[in-house]
Design goal:
With 116 residues, the protein is an alpha+beta fold. The protein has three helices and three strands.
Length: 116
């Protein structure tokens, strides 16, 4: 996803300062970010609006993980964290299945009867 977009404003549904305290934090594999949030994080504003939460992405140095920080009221934070973790798992499994199919196809090409 390249560089992570910087936070420029706080959405109107996030109450300052109470909703900015005690955020929910989890980590996602960096390779899943584009699938989850769109190119350059283009889907983040929509996800924030629908979930009534504010998201912040922080790249972790020397790691293939990105930290996702979710701000908002207690229930919105938990719901958004659960939704995003579910999305990450779905995309991870989808990519894994794609890699398995690719490996099977490569094996089939190598072992085809015409190759012997």
């Amino acid at each position: 996803m390249g560089t992570l977009p910087a936070r420029r404003n706080i959405p109107p549904w996030v109450k300052v300062p109470e909703d900015l305290k005690d955020p929910e934090v989890f980590q996602v594999q960096t390779r899943l970010l584009k699938a989850m949030f769109g190119p350059d994080g283009s889907r983040i504003p929509y996800i924030e609006q629908v979930s009534k939460a504010m998201l912040e992405l922080k790249a972790l140095e020397s790691s293939d993980l990105t930290e996702v920080v979710v701000y908002g009221s207690y229930l919105y934070k938990l719901r958004t964290k659960w939704m995003l973790q579910s999305m990450a798992e779905w995309h991870r499994q989808r990519q894994e299945r794609g890699m398995l199919k690719l490996a099977e196809a490569m094996t089939a090409l190598e072992l085809g009867p015409w190759m012997k």
